Amino acid sequence: MASGPDPELFVNRLDLLGPYTMIEPMFISGDGPVELTPRGQRQVRLLGDYRALVGRVAGWLHEDSAALRPRAGMYSPYGVIFGFSSNITEHMAFRTLVDAEAPPFSLEDAFTEGDSARREWVGGWRKLPHMKREMLARFDYPQEFAGLIFARIERALRLAASGEAAGSRTGRLFIAAEGDEAVQAAAASIAPMPVQYLVSSDLQVVAGFRARSCDEASLLHDRFEGELAVSYRTSGGWIGLSKDFLTDVLAAGRDVRIIGLPARAAAVLALMCRGVVAGE
Q1: What is d(CA 174, CA 190) in angstroms, rounded to the nearest whole number?
Q2: Comparing C-alpha atoms, which of 233, 227, 235, 222 is closest to residue 272?
Q3: Stretch (H or E) spanning 256
Q4: Number of C-beta neighbours around residue 220 at 10 A
């Protein structure tokens, strides 16, 4: 199920998986020299183990995948859109409050195939009284989506098993700290980081068209959720770099540069994006 949202990332774009799974406040030291925390070091080791494991078993997984293909009228975990596993337990608890009955299925059942009763169980979460109209679709069961996601997983495994995925180029990230004129000059021909991926609560930064506006509470929430490649405080607020550029720019094979960062922020970004930074 981990590969459901983006199977290519978890199977064939492992150079981008590292940056996507890094969480700055958890994996990068907050004081002193910029370095990986013990948790960050463990994360890097686990990613290395995962890379080796996927390389060994991709062929076997592709051979076995036909038996797991979603079937019409049946429940498949590939068709459920949650966000986090905590959302599943949350809705199970709310459903119990409404029905005053124990849930017919467990958390584990949400991640295995089942019959129409399990599908009805998942669909029942949409009827909870606290659900907003715009949120209903997130907890629906789209059969078409399940088939689409599974097809992407099969394709990713096939490419990995055949070696065809090795030809995909990942762009490089050029990082230049403020005042590092040599690096800035070397990266002058590289396209700059599009403003759409930079967010800030600093009104002066936003007014200067150097970032999109974002309130500080939302920015800091995204920081702790691991949605930013780097974030740092300014005199008037915070600036953050969305990880969306990893898919939109680097995964498309395009290089990009970001210059003028404070020295510490530049060092943090280099650690957060290990494997895709130019000059490594």
Answers
A1: 8
A2: 227
A3: strand 256-261
A4: 17
Starting at the edge strand found earlier in the chain, the sheet holding 228-234 runs: 212-213, 198-200, 237-242, 228-234
Q: Residue 33: CB partners within 8 Å, gap ≥ 6?
A: none
Q: Report domain extents, the chain.
A: 169-280
DSSP tally for the chain: helices H, then strands E? 12, 6
92/34 Cα distance (integer angstroms): 42
| Tokens representing residue 202 in the block | 């600093």
Question: CB neighbours (10 Å) of residue 96?
Answer: 12
| Dist. CA 62–CA 170, nearest whole Å | 24
∠76-82-85 over CA atoms, to 5°? 95
Amino acid at residue number 21: T
The gap from C-alpha 177 to its chain's centroid, in whole angstroms, comes to 26
What is d(CA 104, CA 232) in angstroms, rounded to the nearest whole number?
A: 46
pTM for this model (two decimals): 0.81
191 phi, psi to nearest 5 deg: -60, 135
Structure-token pair, residue 192: 């700059």
pLDDT tens per residue across span 208-218: 999 999 999 99
Mean pLDDT of 50-54: 93
Does the pLDDT at position 223 exceed 90? Answer: yes
Sign of the C-alpha dihedral computed for residues 84, 230, 174 and 195 taken in this order: positive
Q: How far is CA 82 from CA 14, 19, 126, 136, 141, in A?
A: 23, 22, 12, 11, 10
CB within 8 A of 163, min separation 6: which ones? none
Q: Which two three-digit tokens encode residue 10?
A: 């978890």
Q: What is the DSSP letter of 249?
A: I
77, 148 Cβ separation under 8 angstroms? no
